[in-house]
Write a structure and sequence with these properties.
It holds the Pfam family EamA. By secondary structure, the chain is mostly helical. The chain is built from 13 helices and 2 strands. The chain has one domain. It is 74% helix and 1% strand.
């Protein structure tokens, strides 16, 4: 199915942005609950596998609608926006609070811009580049582990790496897939990455955990909600938004996602330290600079 895309944000665009903010802000606490029983790799495989099964009926029809010349781009979107980040974020959250993870993911607009100017012929902006530098300082602040000897939480690097992946995928959709229906992009991308995820899951001790761990069903339920609402349905909305506006506007969900993630984290007993608020403020400033357009 072919559709036109690109343009200024409308009220509907902002409403979609708000809904995505709430959904994705909640995803980090759901990942945390999934990690109660499963490993980070298992949470990632479950997330992809369940979303794949939900989208399978749509994918069967969509496969015939997408021209072959676009298939490489759809596969790339699946890898960079879903497959790799779905494993990286849970791996990072094994030793990183859900609230901190939510803040770090707000780096996405910066990497969207960086990939845009390096690979996708986007115009260079000195102010946006300064914003990227400010954001990196904020990210380092978040990853500092205070104590007798100050160190860096290396697990958080997994989460930071996921934002690099998101930046690539946003540019690919806007540049190469504006004429492809967003539902088809989402369904087919998961069709292409779903089988490997399920094969990996079957090779782990997933069945044994389900049989022996009393909290396994609770964790599975959390990941199922994450997969259906926070992945399959949310991506249907997100790629539609990117097509109708631009990848940088689409990535502005990251303004409010950290706030939702922080509120969930506090409700779950997490402690937000002063240096984390400083890092959060720097990242928000950087997002503002990266998003700001020249008149």
């Amino acid at each position: 199915m072919i559709q036109s895309g690109g343009g200024s944000p409308t009220f509907k665009s902002y409403l979609t942005l708000f809904v995505l903010t709430l959904v994705w802000g909640t995803s980090f606490i759901l990942i945390k609950k999934g990690l109660v029983s499963f490993s980070g790799m298992q949470v990632g495989a479950l997330r992809i596998g369940i979303a794949f099964l939900v989208l399978l009926p749509l994918a069967v029809r969509a496969l015939y609608r997408i021209p072959k010349k676009y298939m490489w781009a759809v596969l790339a979107v699946g890898i960079f926006s879903s497959f790799v980040p779905s494993f990286l974020i849970p791996l990072g959250q094994v030793k990183t609070d859900s609230s901190t993870a939510g803040i770090l993911v707000s780096m996405t607009p910066m990497f969207t811009y960086l990939w845009g100017i390096t690979l996708f012929e986007q115009d260079y902006s000195h102010k946006r580049t300064i914003g990227v530098g400010v954001g990196l300082i904020g990210a380092v602040s978040l990853m500092i582990e205070p104590g007798v000897t100050v160190g860096i939480n290396s697990s958080a690097l997994y989460i930071l790496a996921s934002t690099i992946m998101y930046g690539v995928s946003g540019n690919i959709v806007h540049r190469n897939l504006k004429d492809v229906d967003s539902t088809d992009i989402t369904a087919v991308s998961f069709f292409l990455i779903g089988f490997p995820a399920l094969i990996y899951l079957g090779a782990t001790d997933f069945v044994e955990i389900m049989q022996s761990d009393p909290q396994a069903w609770f964790s599975l339920g959390a990941v199922a909600i994450l997969a259906v609402v926070g992945t399959a349905l949310a991506l249907l909305l997100f790629w539609k938004l990117v097509q109708q506006t631009d990848p940088v506007f689409g990535s502005t969900t990251t303004y409010l996602v950290p706030i939702v993630a922080i509120l969930w984290g506090i409700a779950d007993g997490e402690t937000i330290l002063p240096h984390q608020f400083v890092g959060f403020a720097l990242i928000l400033l950087s997002v503002f600079l990266v998003q700001k357009r020249r008149k």
